[in-house]
Structures are given as structure tokens and as C-alpha cells.
Amino acid sequence: MEPVPPAYDPFRVVFVCTGNICRSPMADVVFRWFVEQAGLGDRVVSSSAGTGDWHVGERADSRTVAALERRGYDGSKHRARQFTMEDFDRNDLIVALDRSHERSLHTWARTPADADKVSLLLPFSGGDDGLDVPDPYYAGEKMFDDVLGMIERASRALFRQLEPAIRPTS
Questions:
Q1: Which of 23, 32, 63, 153 does the annotation list as catalytic?
Q2: Residue 28 catalytic?
Q3: 160 is annotated as an active-site residue
Q4: What's the DSSP call for residue 170?
Q5: Per-position b or e across 83-119, b if 16+ CB within 10 A of its CB
Q6: Which has fewest Cβ within 10 Å: 24, 55, 112, 143?
């Protein structure tokens, strides 16, 4: 007997940073963890991408994977990819990790509907973290941990905002 496909399309979100090896993989892994913990893995699909192609096919930065592991997440399966125009079609929400990514995504948007899908991550948390998730690439281990903390707070808030709309009604 073949599995029956769901009677709904899952909500799709993509997290975008520069090279797709530090910040956006962290956000994808963390957001997916919240989704899975809530038992909504079949209702939400998340991914990540980079604005540039420098690291396409590579694993997440080893410091990213280590920071994730220290907090109990698994980032080992990640492979970097570049954002494409099809991402506008495939995703309901496009989450930029800083304002430079947000500007690029708005420039690439083909329609107002594409542009309306783009949001920054940090404002979801409503905290004092500012607008941009800093790039830890040229920093040390502590910065990767600090960035992960910012991403956790904002991803939790993003999930809490989306959850009522994606949770099945009974």
C-alpha cells in the first residue's frame, strides 16, 4: 500500500546568508528542531541557501557544526547551495540573516509578491539583538556560540508566530 500524500501543502521557509556555511545553516537546523519538537515536521519544510556560490556543495563550516553540536543540534548533513529564482516560487517565507542579504533578495525579486516573502530573522525576537546576525566566519568559537544564541531566540519567536497557522485544526 502506497502512502497517502497530505491534503495540504507544507509551509516552506528558506534561510539566506552569504555563503550558506555559517548563519543560514544554523537557522535552518534550529528552526527545524522547533518544528520537529512541536510534532509539525510534516507541515513545515525548511532549507537554507547563500547569496553567493563560493561554497556550493560544501559542508557547513566546522565551527558551525561544532557550535550546533555543543547545543545538541546536528548540522552534519548540510550541503551549501546558492539561492535561485526558483526559491521565490518554492517558498512561502524567505528569511535573510542580515540587511545585505535582504537588499540582495529584494533586488532579485521579480514581483511585489516575491519581495513580500522576504523578512529579516532577528526582528522576530523583538529583543536587543539588532537587525543583523553578525557573520562569525572571521571570528572565533565564542562568536559562533553567540550567533547561535541569537538565532535560537529569533527562530523560537518565528516558530511561535507561525505555529498557530500551521498547526492542524481538529
A1: 23
A2: no
A3: no
A4: -
A5: beeebbeebebbbbbbeebbebbeebbeeeebeebbb
A6: 112
Q: What would the mean pLDDT of 5-25 be, rounded to a whole number?
A: 90
Look up the CATH number of the domain holding residue 79.
Answer: 3.40.50.2300
Task: Give the Å distances, CA to CA, from 53 to 17, 27, 57, 92.
Answer: 11, 19, 9, 23
- Alpha-carbon gap, residue 17 to 47, rounded angstroms: 12
**22 catalytic per annotation:** no
What SS3 class is residue 16? strand
Structural domains of the chain, count: 1
List the catalytic residue out of 59, 71, 135, 145. 135
Using 50, 70 and 90 to split pLDDT, how confident is the model at 34?
A: very high
For 49, the grid coordinates are 541557501
